Amino acid sequence: MSVRAGIVVTGTEVLNGIIRDSNGPWLSERLREIGVDASHIVVVGDRPEDLLAALRFLAAESVALIVTSGGLGPTADDLTGEVVARFQERPLELDEALFGRIAEILRPLLSRWPDLDREAVLRSNRKQALVPAGATVLEPVGTAPGLVVPPAAGDGAGPTVLVLPGPPRELQPMWRAALETGAFQAAVVGAGTFEWRIMRLFGIPESEIAETLLVAERDGLALDPLEITTCLRRGEIEIATRYAPTDAAAYAAFEAYVARRHGPLLFSTDGATIDAQVASLLLGEAGAGGVGDAAGARPARTVATAESCTGGLLAGRLTDRAGSSAYVLGGLVVYSNAAKVALAGVSSELLERVGAVSSEVAEALADGAIARLGSDVGVGITGVAGPGGGTPEKPVGLVWVSVALRDGPRLTRRLSLPGNRADIRDRTTTVALHMLRRLLIEADAPPPGEAAPGAGSDAA
Amino acid sequence: MSVRAGIVVTGTEVLNGIIRDSNGPWLSERLREIGVDASHIVVVGDRPEDLLAALRFLAAESVALIVTSGGLGPTADDLTGEVVARFQERPLELDEALFGRIAEILRPLLSRWPDLDREAVLRSNRKQALVPAGATVLEPVGTAPGLVVPPAAGDGAGPTVLVLPGPPRELQPMWRAALETGAFQAAVVGAGTFEWRIMRLFGIPESEIAETLLVAERDGLALDPLEITTCLRRGEIEIATRYAPTDAAAYAAFEAYVARRHGPLLFSTDGATIDAQVASLLLGEAGAGGVGDAAGARPARTVATAESCTGGLLAGRLTDRAGSSAYVLGGLVVYSNAAKVALAGVSSELLERVGAVSSEVAEALADGAIARLGSDVGVGITGVAGPGGGTPEKPVGLVWVSVALRDGPRLTRRLSLPGNRADIRDRTTTVALHMLRRLLIEADAPPPGEAAPGAGSDAA
C-alpha cells in the first residue's frame, strides 16, 4: 500500500459553489509527484465542527498526511489553525517573533490606508501568530504563516497536518517550502520516488489517445509499469506519466511509440507549454520549438497582434510571461470595423466586400500589425465569439487566424470552434500560438536536402 | 438545525486534478435553493472502499441526503450503484423494463457503428439496469438511469442517497426530475427557504471588515440571525449573507450599517460585479452604477484602451461580456516605447523626460486611445509588472492608471500593488474598472444643489 494523504479545502464560499476551488486539484497533482496518493478531497465550510469531522474522517482512513487550504485569514470565521491544534491536541501559543514579522508585513499596507485603525488591524492579525505547540512555522507569503503540525503522540501515531493559506499565490510557494521541512518529510517517509514526464499533443481528440494506448498494448508495449493519465486542457492533450526510475526504458518506448503514431501532432516531450515554446522561438533560442524543430541558432524576432474577437487576450497571453518585452512590441484591439480601418489599415472596401470575418481580413490584420508596430511577425484574428452575431454562413465559433512573417511566408486558417464565448476566445489564442510555432519553425528549418545544423552530417 | 446534505463526487481523474469538477459546486447551489445546506463535498476516486467510507462519514454527520455524481457508466470502474446498494443494504435487482429502454436508447448508436459487437455492448450496459430494491428510478438522459435510494430501515433512519450520472448535461436535468419524486421530498422534509444577498466593497483590506462585524455587534446590531461570510476576490471584498425571510429587517439594518461605515467603498448591494456595473454605465442604463449612483437616464458611451504593462488584459476583460461590441471600440497594446509613440501618439520627448511609467504618460495614453479610436472614454495604463524592470524610484508593482472623458474630466491614480506579475496585472484591471465606474458616475451626477432625477424633490 502506498502512502496516502487527504486534502481538506475550507471555505463556505467554496462549499456553496460561489468560489471555484483550484487548490484541491493542484495539491493532488503535487502529492502525486512526490509519490503520495490522495484518498479524498473534502470541502468544508467555515464551521469548526465540520472541519474537525473531516480531519477525523481522514485520520480514520489511515492517511499519513492531511493538507488543508484556507481559513488562515484575520477574520473570525478563519479558524483552521485553532481546529487543527485541537485535532492534534496541541495548545496554541503566541509566537511573538512571528507576530513581529507579520506586523512588519502589514506596515506598508497600513501606511497606504492612513485612515485605518492600526491597533484594530494588528489585533485581528494577532491570531495569525498563534502556533500549535511543537508545530513548524512556514513563513508568510501574504500575511498568513503556514504550519506543519505533527500528531499528538509523535510521528507515525496519526496524520501530520500541513496547514496552508487559501490564496493560490500564497499556497503554492508555501507548499514548496513545506517540502523542505523535517516535519513534512517525516510524515511521508516511505513514499516512493517517481519520475514524472509530460507529453503534449495538439490537434487530435482525447478518444484518439485512448485508442493509442489500446493499440500500443496490442503491439506488445509494456504499459503496466507506467501510470498514464491523459487529459484535455485548453484544447491540447496532455499525457502525464508516473513511473519508477527503474522503468525508464518502458517510458522511452512509450514516448517513441506516441511520436511515431502521432508525428507532428506531438509538439512537446519535456512538458514545455506552447506558450514557453513560442517565447523561446521568438527569442531565437536553439531547439526552442520542441519536437520536430531541427534548427540550431536562429534569429530573434519581434511580434505584434491585431485582434478582433479575442479582444486583446492573445496580447495578454503573450505578455503573461516575464521578459516578454524582449519580443512583444504591442498589439491592436480592433473590435469595431472602424478600428480595423483606422488602426490596422484594413480597407473599407475589403470589409464591405468580404465581411469582417474572412481570410482576407485576417491576413490584412496580420499585415497591419506588422506595418503599424514594425514587428517581424504579425498575428491577425477575426471571428464570431457569440453568443449573438452568428449567421448561417458565419456561425458562432467561426474564426479566421493568420500569422505572417514580414515580407515572408504566412499561414492562414479557418477554425470552427465549439463551446461558449469564453471557450471560443481562449481556444483561438491556443490555435494562434500553435500557428506561430509552426511558422517560426518552418522559417528557420534548414532547406530541404540539407542536414540540420549541428546534426553532425558530413553529406551536406 | 437546518436540513443538511452531503455531496460525493466520484472519479479518479477528478481526485487527481486532471478533470475539473463542476458538479459539486452546482449541486451545492441547487441544494441551497431548496433550503438544504451542504455539509461537505467529498471527492473520491474509483475505489469502492473509499466511496463506501465517504458515504459512512456523511451518514455519521447526520445528513438527511447524500447526492452522488458519476460512476454510472457501463465500464468496470463504474461502481456507484453497487456501492450505494451495499451502503443502504438493498440487494440489486435487474429491472427488465428499464433494460429494454436502455437497449432502445442504444439502438441508433449501434446502427451508426456497424462494427461494434452488439452483444458485448448490451452486456456491459446491462449493469446500468440493476436497481437497489425499493429505489426510485430516474429515467436516463444519456444511457445511465439515476436512482433515489432510501435508507434500509425506511425514511428518517439515515440518509437517502440520490445517485446521479457524472456528465453535467445528464446530471442537471436529472436533478430536476429527482425533485419531483416522493422519495426525494421525503428526505428533505423540513428544509426552509432562505434569502441570499451579496455586498461588494473595494479599497479596504479584509481585516477591516472583520472589525466592522465586531463593531456592529458592539453597536447592538442583531447579527446572529445572519449567516455572514466574507472573502477577498480579485482585490475586492465580498460579503455574502444568508438569512431566513423573517430576518429581512436584521439584514437591512446590517446593510445600512456597512453603507454608513464604508461609504463609497461599498459599490454593490445587489451582487452586481464591477464588470457588470461598468458595462451598464457605458450602455447608459439608469442606476447602472449601483450604490451612490444617483443618475437616471444617462448617455451611452464608447470606450477604448491603451495598455502597456497589462498588455491587452483590460481590453480582454471588457470584451469578455457578450454584447460588449456595443461600447468597446478597441484598444492599443503599447508594450514598447516605440509603440507608445507610433500608436498612441505619446511624444518621445515626454517619454524621455518623465519615463514610460509616469502619470503624464498614463494620461497621454488615455488621450491617445480616445484620439486614435474615436471613443468617448479612454483608459491609459503603464507600470512595472515585474519580476524584472524595477528600480528604487519605480519599483515592481508601481502602476499609473488614467481614465478620461473626451474633452472632459479625468482621474489619474498611482498604484503600488503587491504580489507577482500575474497579480499585479490582474489587480490593475480591477482598479481601472473601479476608476471607470467613478468617472462615469460623476460625469452623470446631477449638479450640486440639484436633486437626483426621479428623487421627487420639488425644490429644484
TrEMBL record, chains A, B:
InterPro entries linked: CinA (IPR050101), CinA-like_C (IPR036653), CinA_C (IPR008136), Competence-induced_CinA (IPR008135), MoaB/Mog-like_dom_sf (IPR036425), MoaB/Mog_dom (IPR001453)
Coiled coil regions in record: none
Signal peptide: none
Cross-referenced SMART domains: MoCF_biosynth
Gene3D superfamilies: CinA-like, MoaB/Mog-like domain
Pfam families: CinA, MoCF_biosynth
Domain MoaB/Mog: 6-186
UniProt family annotation: Belongs to the CinA family.
Name by which UniProt lists this protein: CinA-like protein
Native source organism of the sequence: Conexibacter stalactiti
